[in-house]
Amino acid sequence: MGKNIEGEAFITDHIFSYILHGKHDVWVGGKKYSFQEGDFRFFKRNQLSKYVKNTDNGGFKSIAVHIDQTTLKEMSKQYSLFAEETYSEGEAFFIQPDHKLKGFVESLTHYLQEPKVDERIVLLKTQELVFLLLENNPSFKNILFDFAEPGKIDLEAFMNSHYRYNVSIERFAFLTGRSLSGFKRDFEKLFNTSPSRWLIRNRLEDAKYQIENKKEKPSEVYLELGFEDLSHFSYAYKKAFGYAPNKRI
């Protein structure tokens, strides 16, 4: 039995992906998505995500294409492709594939064993994918060709649903549509404490609840709650509550 692969990531580019083998749970925007072999899926850019890749029964394997902003801006200029409205129906979703998308994925499998693929081929395949997605669902135009950066959003709602992510204060500022100084100013006005102290306190309170009420093990919760290693988590937990996390299980 393989060990599941867990982690978190900031999705910088739009991502199209197809699962060749295995199962994949992803949390984006406070919502859990469960994918399995044969699923076509799409992730919007500028999102925080957590994931678990199931490695049982042969492991996990997928094909992913990152659709970068430079390519999309060049296509927008060359083919007059522009977003007509803001797409707000989800940060990640399944794609109902047609025969062309299936053929596209099959064409990519020939490159899986290559140590390095010619950048010109990568560009052409990315452009091909964009046109296939637009043909599959015209609403993709409002996702792919929306070049706006995150606007100023509700800080309290965002932080309460994203405090478990182990990312920098600068990243939180960017995702809430603020400069670093503006983020710190708004944060302290709202929460009456600094972002770093608030994040640690909320993560530890969450950990305490999971350990004492849901009987989770410290080794099962520390990564989920944004701590980099178990020893740091145990030290912070004992400092906050006066006893080690494994003392109340």
From TrEMBL:
Q: Which UniProt keywords apply?
A: DNA-binding, Transcription, Transcription regulation
Is this entry keyworded DNA repair?
no
**One protein family per Pfam:** HTH_18
Tell me the GO molecular function terms. Answer: DNA-binding transcription factor activity; sequence-specific DNA binding
Keyword Transcription regulation in the entry? The reply is yes
Output the superkingdom of the source species: Bacteria
User: What's the name of the protein?
Assistant: HTH araC/xylS-type domain-containing protein
What is the species of this protein? Chryseobacterium taiwanense
Q: Could you tell me which residue ranges the HTH araC/xylS-type domain spans?
A: 153-249
Q: Which PROSITE patterns match?
A: HTH_ARAC_FAMILY_2 (PS01124)
